[in-house]
Amino acid sequence: MTDSKKRDCKANFSDAEIRSLLKTVLGESNVIQSKLQCGLTLRRKNEAWGRLVTAVNAASIAAMRSVDDCRRKWKDVKAAVLKEQLETGGGGPLKESPYNDLVWQIIGDRSDVVSGILFVIFHIIITLSSVPEDDICIIFVLSHCHV
Prior knowledge:
Elements: H1 15-27, H2 29-32, H3 42-59, H4 67-87, H5 100-107, H6 110-128, H7 133-143
Helix pairs in contact: 1-3, 1-5, 6-7
């Protein structure tokens, strides 16, 4: 590949940058996680992301991060933690990730998140398969029993 076609990549986020990102998202979660309701404006949301980028860049030794970089990293870290939760069936022991606790503090109760995701998955199964709906409901209820 020629030099003109090579894509410049930034360094991976460091542990310090990720922790700074998560701690700032936690502090700004009422704005960052909101759906722009109750008088919250896009301007306030963008200002919160700006403060977050400033905090992440203060912790960075390698690269200057943009708002898009930080939004993408937050989305990826959150998705990875949710995926780990789903792989355990929503109730088993979680894989140990250094960011699990911070992410769960930000997004809230595990059971609500996983139940919502499982509901969507079961709805898709019902729609696309010939499994009777009553059987799927029994499976869903049993999967949420805490023994």
